[in-house]
Amino acid sequence: MAVAGCTLCIKYMLFLLNFIFWLAGGVILGLALWLRHDSKTSNLLILKFEQEQAPGTFYISVYILIAVGAIMMLVGFLGCYGAIQESQCLLGTFFFFLVILFACEVAAAIWGFMNRDTISKELINFYDSAYIKAVDVTSTSKDSAIKVLDVFHTTLDCCGKGGENTLFQEVSKTLCPRKTAPTTEGFQENQNCHDKITILFSEKLHLIGLAALVVAVIMVFEMIFTMVLCCGIRNSPVY
């Protein structure tokens, strides 16, 4: 069976979109693996303090991206092959998986929107718990807390929570050996660790959101073209 006219054009447009979709799956898979092994995030999220692991909510979205990227590559290949072979069965299977992927992406986007501030807040709370122990001279966990803070300060090139009190300024040389002593104006606001943590994860979540938006647009066009091509194949009189 062979299609002709406008349906033939749709066939090759669908093939091209599926090829782009397959490439996008590879890009998303690579992006997710980079986010998983990025030194800044991985150095912070592997930390432990007083038997408490640093919150790993961020990795949930990363693992979802890894799964989505791998599935997109598989589904994209299926769509390319189905379009070239003009197989209604393959195109129907492709459409089914595409709808599932689209639904999962919408669900992940809703989850990400609802938890957009949770990731940074959880890590800020983890930082603060170590911060409190580090400035407490009577704490038995002082040394381990200082080691945890050192990872934050070195990785993010930051120091403190912002608006530091006198006690922190007195021990800042111990907690922030790479930092100069505070000036009469105090610490610069854009160098405190609360802001740096928020910026770090905001940038990465925006990157994930942009990738998801591009893929969602491609998916919508692919679903439309797949339905048109299936109808064209079914109604084609050419054998």
Can you lay out the helices and strands and say which pair or pack?
Elements: H1 6-37, H2 39-45, E1 48-49, E2 52-53, H3 57-85, H4 88-114, H5 118-135, H6 142-156, H7 166-175, H8 193-235
Antiparallel strand pairs: 1-2
Q: What is the radius of gyration?
A: 25 Å
Total count of helical runs of at least 4 residues:
8
Distance between the termini: 4 Å
Helix content: over 70%
> How confident overall, as mean pLDDT?
77
What is the H-and-E element order?
HHEEHHHHHH
**Count of all domains:** 2
Describe this protein's structure:
The chain contains eight helices and two strands. Mean pLDDT is 77; it is low at 184-190. α1 runs antiparallel to α8 and α5 (118-135) runs antiparallel to α8. The chain has two domains: 6-116 and 211-235; 119-195, Cd81 Antigen, Extracellular Domain, Chain: A. The chain is 76% helix and 2% strand. Strands 1-2 form a two-stranded antiparallel sheet. The protein is rod-shaped. β1 and β2 (52-53) form a beta hairpin. The protein has 239 residues and is mainly alpha-helical.
Summarize the structure.
This protein is mainly alpha-helical. The protein has two domains: 6-116 and 211-235; 119-195, Cd81 Antigen, Extracellular Domain, Chain: A.
